[in-house]
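Appendix B, example 12.
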Amino acid sequence: MKILAISDEPARRFWDYYSSGILDDYDLIVSCGDLSRHYLEFLVTMAKCPLIYVPGNHDEAYVKHPPEGCICIDDDIFEYQGIRFLGLGGSYKYRPDGHYMYTENQMNLRILKLMFKLKKYKGFDVLVSHAPMYEFGDKEHLPHRGFKCFEALLDKYKPKYMLHGHIHRNYGYNIPAKYSYNEITVINAYEYYILDYNRIEGNI
């Protein structure tokens, strides 16, 4: 399965410089949040495949106007072509009125509420989140802190991939697009990342 993972900023390749057929080869588009519904609706209209998404901390507009034609997998497991995607959107809570913001305890409670589905699907293959793990690809300051409970989730179910956004790779020169955690491939999907489910292609 060839997956286009996207997050945080529209990729000029697929937006400003879109050319007919550029999305034809993808089997699935996965949004990790903080992208306008107009961008997601454009992509799913032009592509020949589904688009699944989780919200980011800046996606409060989704509450009243979710992206049409796209599939929200937040707090859910979505199976497609035999691959199980678990969605956990939102960021660490850094202000009291944030809709898609959660404390560590709140995120852990969301995971606990998914136990029945995790048992039903016998785990998952890809974690789709907006935020990264705590101390794995995150930042020290509160708005970009990751979640500790993601580490426990990955340790227990050992998926093949984790896709996240939130940490823009232009924040610094040393922010990787791909890294590993206990044999799990973790991908920062900022702008876009091209992933073959059985072989990493990279954002080329």
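The longest helix spans residues 37-46. The chain has a mean pLDDT of 94.
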